[in-house]
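Data card: per-record layout.
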Amino acid sequence: MASYGQYCPVAKATELLGDRWTLLIVRELIYGPIRFSDIERNLPGISRSTLSQRLKRMQRDGIATRDDDGAYVFTEAGEALRPVVATLGEWVTRWVLADPTRDEADPELLMLYISRHVESDELPAGRVVIEWHFTDQGRRIWLTLEPDDVSVCVENPCLPVDLWVSGDTLELYRVYLHRCTLDDALARGTVELTGLAEMRSGFRRWIRWSDFNRPDAPPLTDQRAG
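The structure for this 226-residue chain is written out next.
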């Protein structure tokens, strides 16, 4: 991105992070270390050349680097972006973001987001397999949960399933974003949980849902940019 020619922190921030895809790459690095192929898979629509250019720019700007295994990680400066991204996401969720459209309701991305919000300390010993059925799209995706590993499987892993979650994709997005509670969706029948009682009750502890606009989140502080 060309310089704005302004000696202003906000202008400089826009030069560093304002290119298309850059902020979403920052979002992915929050869950790093992460490899090039994983970032590419998690950002449908980005080209390999664009991703390569953005990562090289972020390395030159001192935001990201590569570890000994070749994965991308934040530098100290990059780490300092975590609360910035959190505050920006919370602001958008509260004041701008509407319910997702059908075009935005991607089951695979939803499962990626959910997999990043698993309370590992709450999981039982061993492995739990949850099969998600997105009824409006006829899609099935599996989430395997272990205390030290969470995996999303778009193909049947051929493992015993412990819990089945079914519902409309838009409704599951709404639950994830706290626009309705799981209990409300279950009461309306737009989401269903099938499995042993211990698995159904455990599900409520294992999945934290989105960090944005959580009912128990503190209010945004009064911060004014100048």
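Known properties of this structure: The CA atoms of residues 6 and 101 lie 37 Å apart. The first helix runs from residue 9 to 17.

See the next section for split statistics.
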